[in-house]
Design a protein that fits this description.
The chain has a six-stranded antiparallel β-sheet, covered by helices on one side. By secondary structure, it is of the alpha+beta class. The chain is built from one helix and six strands. The two termini are about 25 Å apart. The longest helix has 19 residues, at about 65-85.
């Protein structure tokens, strides 16, 4: 798993998108302090369902028309959650 620090938030680690059989799609993560936000994208009937999950709690979710759009939406929602936690 590759991680990198976000330049403007030194306590944040980004975990890049990769295929994940557990979610039948792709997953990424944002580690902030002791919290891990899971970003998940799952294809469904020519659309993509995305979620941002903290442990078992879904913090944000939506549906997008493309994989790239779903990833961007999940990332934006996850960053909003990190800002709330900061």
């Amino acid at each position: 798993m590759h991680t990198s620090s976000a330049p403007h938030l030194p306590n944040v680690q980004l975990i890049n998108w990769q295929p994940d059989a557990d979610v039948f799609g792709e997953a990424a993560g944002i580690l902030y302090s002791d919290r891990l936000l899971d970003l998940v994208v799952t294809p469904s009937n020519e659309r993509y369902v995305w979620e941002v999950v903290d442990a078992c709690d879904i913090l944000a979710s939506g549906i997008a028309g493309s994989l790239a759009e779903a990833k961007r939406a999940a990332e934006a929602a996850a960053w909003r959650e990190v800002v709330k936690l900061a």
